[in-house]
Amino acid sequence: MAEEEYSWDSYLNDRLLATNQVSAAGLASEEDGVVYACVAQADENNPEFDKWTLFYKEDFEIEVEDENGNKNKKTINEGQTLLTVFKEGYAPDGVWLGGTKYQFINIERDLEFEGYTFDVATCAKLKGGLHLIKVPGGNILVVLYDEEKEHDRGNSKVAALTFSKELAESGGQ
What we know:
The chain is 21% helix and 39% strand. With 173 residues, the protein is of the alpha+beta class. The chain has a single domain (3-169), classed as Dynein light chain 2a, cytoplasmic (Beta-Lactamase, 2-Layer Sandwich). β3 and β4 (71-76) form a beta hairpin.
């Protein structure tokens, strides 16, 4: 295959999903946080499975409770929840992806990995989670792991960092 025909989806599949350490991966723009390329392991129980359902849902409302116990509605823009993690260093309403809420765990600023430095955020949900890594080229790598598929937080993070290093070496292109 010619190099210019090699898509981000193919690259994510061959260099990250193929490690069997992650269940899905995507690239989001650092400008709006919206995922523009993604791959995911097939769901044997759902022949209608669409990988995009893991990474994107139109803006929607959730109910949040303020400090006085009053319930209010809040509009969730998933891309903005990703960006908030890197801008603010936390995500009070969680990180939302594909309509699923991930609890923000931590952010590691300037994490050094094999000669490269990245900002890495980790979020969790029941039996899984995700890693967000700012990578060269104005992108955010989004990596999901699923403990029911024998993935774990540590190995999926190493796979994500290895992929991020490859992107850094290529200048993010």
